[in-house]
TrEMBL record:
Record keywords, A-Z: DNA-binding, Transcription, Transcription regulation
Pfam family, one: UTRA
InterPro entries assigned to the protein according to its UniProt record, in alphabetical order: Bact_HTH_transcr_reg, Chorismate_lyase_/UTRA_dom_sf, Tscrpt_reg_HTH_GntR, Tscrpt_reg_Rrf2, UTRA, WH-like_DNA-bd_sf, WH_DNA-bd_sf
GO biological process: negative regulation of DNA-templated transcription
MF annotations from Gene Ontology: DNA binding; DNA-binding transcription factor activity
Protein's name in the database: GntR family transcriptional regulator [Rhodococcus jostii RHA1]
All residue ranges annotated as the HTH gntR-type domain in the record: 1-70
Amino acid sequence: MATQTEDLRRRIVADINAGKPGTKLGSERELAERYRTSRSSLRQVLAALEEAGLVDRVIGRSGGIFISHAQVQRSLTDVVGVPAFLASQGYVAGTRVLSTKICAPDATTQQALSITADDFVIEIQRLRLADGSPISLELAQFPADAFPNLLEQQLGGSLYEILESKYGLVTARADERIEAVNATPEEANLLGIKPNSALLLITRVAFDQHDRPCEFSRDLFRGDRTRLAVTAQGHGVGVAPSVAAASVALQSQAV
């Protein structure tokens, strides 16, 4: 059962998610009356929300509590699931499983997972939430033969945790490619944004501890809510790195 403080936090977060960045929620006095709570309890919750980047508190006659909608940060140097990096930044992670199926792989998936047209893949589409607000849309595919009964598991959390605990698989590394794309009407509807809004498409092939491809996924992150981070290792002038940890490639412009 949620505590009074947690219930208050959820109610405020719901109002934040229903609003737009920059919108004034009200003054402390107005909010205390609206949520029927004490000023001290309200300030405790607002302090946590401000630290998480969800609200801004402005002092003065025209001040008050404003919706911030801070960006979440995704590291490019760690192989972690969405719940893990959201939790590390103070967000409550949520998931809506949109669809699951076992199907034949297309040519791109065959190449990514080193399988043939005669094989099958497990496909899982999910919507990821940060404090109840849509943050990303993901489509993940796995070799069906390698993960029997995967669709019978609880798919609302980290799939990497399921692969490790149920199948003994450890995700050792991942190759990722990042592109800027525009949201289709369907994607925009699911993510709560306008069509053609900017998205970050991260295409990933993950490998297990035996260096076998185990996952092929395409994640669409909201461009207005996501910041990418990478730590680059220096090698000195004129010294070539042994392994390219991150790179940027320009795509050819369509004629």
